[in-house]
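Fold this sequence, please.
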Amino acid sequence: MRRRLAAFFADDRRGLGLAAGLIGLTFILMLVIPQIVEPPPPADRGTDSFSTSALGHSLLADSLKQSGWTVDRLRAEPRSRIARDGLIVLGEPDFLEPEEAAEILRDLLLEDIPVLLVLPKRVAIFDREGRLRVARPKARFEVEQVLDAFTDLRLKRLGPDEPKPSWTMIPEGCEPPRIEEMQLVEGDNLFPLIETDEGVLLGVYSDWRRDFFVLADPDLIANHGFGGAEANAALAFEAIRMAAGDRRAVYFDEIIHGHGLAGGFWRSLLRYPLVLTVIHGLLALLVMIWAGVRAFGPRLPTPPAVPPGKAFLIDHVARVIRLGRHDDYLVQRYLDDSLREVAAHFHLEGGTIAEIEKRLEPRARARALPFDPASWRRTARRGGHGAIEAARRIHRWKKEMVHGSGNDPRTSGRRS
């Protein structure tokens, strides 16, 4: 067998032809297999983009597709790889643990994928024939559970007897929507895009970890609201456009509705995108056989266990510190050492850290520099990014106190 393979690959043109054939076969399988194993869509009910009921989002999805947008439903992991080129709509998710919500956002926002979170509002009750019998508002705590899992915003609901709010911010060319018992949000970390005097309908939620869009009332994009008023449809399109930015693709996340692709291990291997891994694994096996038949050159030298230079040592020490979770302690030590160094620069050394802080506060105030050691310590105790941010603030303050900006006569001529 080995001799036959060696004779076959003796001609380079045969090897090149085989490689080209395998690449072509891989491309065909990439297109055909996902279509073969794709299961049928779920039943048309609920608050997902498949649903044609009053609470579903299928009308918005179909209208976007007819307008030239790329529209798809996310039913497989990883989300960030499939929806890399578009906006992901998390439409009315059921209860999620904060850790699960943070994991979804972290994977998407690390890839710089815009996310639109649509809060739930109503629950559908169907009869035995599958027809929608009644749609009642969800309990307030159920909506707040979803809101609290993703943000620290506050929910505000307008009752049927309350006067309709006045619109203070709405996109140019759009009319106020027709929404009964409107649901709004408010909070310090929310930048409004569509707003009333009672709260925000659409805004950008931003904290130190993430930025994403929040639509407080799903009636704007639900089938009954989207198709019931022309103003709702126009404003819904504008909300999608603002959230998507310069992208022209929208992906409705159906995994959060329980519509993820299920199946056994072997079936998962034959489903996109894992099927690509199987194909590439087979190609790698063929290359290994080829490498065993024909030599590709001498064996590469084994790299040293510890590479030369200081980069490895620095990276190793930083990793040990992070694994031990001592970054907040190190920042505390760095703050104390910095305070002593600055105090020595101004001949104010001696005493406890608290006494040094009191002596340095007038000096920092005279230079109009922020000096809040207590805040720096609180930020450092968060660990991770908080510790890094605290260290940056301390370093910036120490540099300005000791060296100044170079144009400050009060610091020029002092020893560094």
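Residues 262 and 268 are 8 Å apart (CA to CA). The first strand starts at residue 70 and ends at 74.
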